[in-house]
Specification:
The structure is a homotetramer. Chain A is of the alpha/beta class. In chain A, about 35% of the residues lie in helices and about 30% in strands. Chain A has eight helices and 13 strands. Chain A has helices spanning about 20-30, 65-75, 100-110, 130-135, 150-160, 180-185, 205-210, 245-270, and strands spanning about 5-15, 35-40, 45-55, 80-85, 90-95, 120-125, 140, 165-170, 190-195, 215-225, 235-240, 275, 280-284. In chain A, helix 3 (about 100-110) runs parallel beside helix 8 and helix 7 (about 205-210) crosses helix 8. Chain A is globular. Chains in contact: A-B, A-C, A-D, B-C, B-D, C-D.
Chain lengths: ~280, ~280, ~280, ~280
């Protein structure tokens, strides 16, 4: 999507007359061409959402000045907003444990240019996936959990900070993050849940699904929040299964869904197509 | 499926050597041609399931005798089994409330020959759908719930009995059935649940789904059991949705899934392709 | 979607700077609130598409004047556009032959309020579906084809004209329309094709699909053009099948897809969410 | 599936009375336990198909003797059949060109134990994917096509033979195989077609799909035959797309479908769940 160098504004504010005119006028006066623009109004809550993609090559003033001037308009409109520039590539860290499927998938998509980000760091509590990291030339850090879970997390957060990480991807990372970690990366930690939420929670979801004889299994990618598995949902998908599939078969099918759902969520986030609004996610 | 007049045996028993040979030998000796045969072994629980469809025109003895002789074999194999003959059409009653989509759908499929059953009775606690019933020429009985819920159910069960009903279809019937009703039709009451189970339970599931920002909605058809919404699952399906869809949109999409899922479940049941085994359903 | 009375503008023009500002400014100055706005830029062809939904209750001038003033702006922008008002309900005619599934489906959705249109006329070349039309209280006209195919079509076009029809829905109407008919309703005749296009064309597609052993079957809704089955695609869907399904099974599954795909296409058209641009369809 | 060491018989023959009894009796008498058994009758062509999975540990005679004795029965029944033993792992070669997604996917699934085969050889006409092959420790041979296409193919066939290859997987191998190659591996070359067949054939299918404004794209895995893209279909899948997706987006979505469809087809083949019958594939 960032083929043309671009600036992306994400906005949310109370719906009001003249909103589009005010915003589009603002950028027109400053010489911008709008590459893409998407809107949505949540009529029930009267909130207006907008994603605006501008041609970065038309920027004729310092970025800071643009942001200050837009900030002044936003204040009038009672608007929350963010801005991103495509020449500043996001830096993503992947946290994993032992399961390789999501990790490989992300690294391969990164390599093929599907995911527009740098991946300067993989962290795991096991050494298991080091080889995979090496294959793709990504630095791998093993931080075993051991007795002091808290100390391990602090070390990890320090690493993330040192690497200037913008996005944390939990690629089947089987550890619970503390409030401290969540707060350090608000709506910037993406988790893949190995089930269709709300659904079988707890251990062995595929065995539960088998025993309950379900006819579909799914996966959910969401931003991590303190209340595990209750975070804003970015993407979901599901596949049909039959009684013939064993729990192991379901797990394999589940893996295929998991990695696709996680990749789509990460892609949407990196392309700045995601606005979180309370517990709902707008994906443009 | 019952194009050729047929006999369908459904069997479940502990897996054991020589099972297929014993069963297929039994029917071969009695001159039968096997039209279809499907098996499944639940390796975890060591249970063997079989569906056998025979050509009815080869039946060269009284039905009772066939059943007695097969019963003797089944006893040796420690087998639970049922038999059905395609010339005895099942009689289904539809219970509805106000929502017409599932009712119309079933009646139309019946009319088009997709559902191989008689539908001699529609019962509702409202008069709302009488017109639809008339359109398709199916007797309609309105039994308002009023003060005495129990009396209404007793009247309904009497009606079902009087009409020799084999299968009860809850086509968005918004009343809870008592243990007595469930027990009267074990694994012969099919309910459509307006959500992907396990999922948003309780009232207004589509509003809940909207507020949670889910990306897929689904529906589940299952046999009714005392523990509401926990019965054996026959069929499920789901569809992708986006933030753009209002709760009302979700409801419309949900209706489309509901009626297809319910119809598929009813069809599978009528074609005797369903074996219930504890809380799992084998759908051949 | 037309809960709030609304005006919908559909626009397409060469992409150019200041477009959104010009259009949104135009409506802001005239006191309008934008209910919904959707844009898309076809970068390859440099065409900009926009759908704008305004609150009709803010209209403070005669409709003709609004259209003249907007026409003047459109001329400057080299824009093709249409406008519709939600208080002028579209009038749809359904053309059918013998297959009832799409007809019932449309009539039921109309009755349930899913399709926001009047349906003052059903035309068929057979008497077969008269009963269905009666059930829903829609006038039915039988125009047998007989020897003079041309005369029959002329009679039909006369009927459509007399009923001020805006949209013609071919609900499995097994007759080919002439250029004259197509030209009378450009991009206003929706056809459902009983296959996933491009795909098995010609007769007995489900038998062809069976013999080829395909694992998925689908359906396509498109605007009718002279070149049969090559018109702009509005909606498609598909379902998985296996070798077990007979041609008759495939047909039943196909019917379920056909009616849902046709209904979605009709709904999108009625809600003015469809822009045709050469042979591509933008569905907002 | 081959958890328990097993023998798999695949059979097809004219449908006839006593078939199941004869076959199951044959194995029962020789002390076998049937692990899985699946049947299908193509009523239109009166052909009976069967897959039988036996517990290898019950084999109490030389394999050759079993096959001879079964061959004698098969002759009586006019049956075509194959037998495979799970302790003889199939050897698959992957042929690729430059696109890495299918290759990585297969290698990763192999590594994770999803695909039960050896992969002793990757052949490509470019050096591009050598690194990927190295990562997974699979020997890689680059055979550039150059001027003499025929010579290159002969070299390749020699390599396949030298490595005792049972299955050839065309993982986006952009070369056409000659009749000689097809004949050397009848129904043992699996190709992934980058479209939903029958569909956009020829070059740039995703651009064609974009320009035609299709709403779904798919992929097809089939056995290679001389008549390119017309071979027996093993597996297909499709995904919804919108006008918003560029040809490049469609390609990315297409890649996800391609690799899953190819993997499922290869898995089915390796698990001996596939019977080819003229141009139809039975996948048990």
């Amino acid at each position: 999507m960032f083929k043309t160098p671009s600036i992306v504004f994400l906005m949310q504010c109370p719906d009001q007359k003249g909103l589009v005119a005010a915003v589009s006028g603002f950028f027109y006066k400053r010489g911008f061409n709008i590459l893409r623009s998407q809107q949505y109004t949540d009529a029930a809550r009267n909130i207006y959402y907008m994603r605006l993609e501008l041609d970065l090559r038309h920027l004729a003033m310092p970025r800071l000045q643009l942001e200050e001037e837009f900030g002044a308009l936003a204040k009038i409109l009672n608007m929350k907003w963010t801005v991103d520039y495509s020449d500043l590539r996001p830096r993503a860290a992947i946290l994993a444990t032992k399961a390789p499927h999501c990790l490989y998938d992300l690294l391969l998509r990164r390599k093929e240019g599907e995911l527009d980000c740098d991946i300067p760091l993989i962290v795991s509590n096991h050494a298991h996936l080091e080889e995979a990291a090496n294959l793709f030339g990504v630095p791998f850090r093993c931080l075993p959990v051991g007795d002091d879970r808290d100390a391990q997390e602090r070390r990890m957060l320090k690493l993330l900070k040192a690497h200037h990480i913008d996005l944390v991807i939990l690629a089947r990372y089987m550890q619970i993050l503390s409030k401290r970690a969540i707060d350090a990366y608000p709506n910037r930690i993406i988790n893949i849940h190995h089930a269709f939420l709300p659904a079988f929670q707890g251990a062995y979801p595929y065995r539960q699904a088998y025993e309950r004889g379900v006819k579909m299994i799914g996966a959910t990618a969401h931003y991590a929040t303190e209340d595990l598995d209750q975070g804003p949902i970015i993407e979901q998908d599901a596949a049909r299964v039959t009684h013939e599939q064993s729990p192991r078969d379901l797990e394999q099918i589940g893996r295929d869904i998991e990695r696709v759902v996680l990749a789509r969520a990460v892609k949407a986030h990196l392309e700045r197509r995601v606005i979180v609004s309370e517990n709902r996610v707008i994906v443009f």
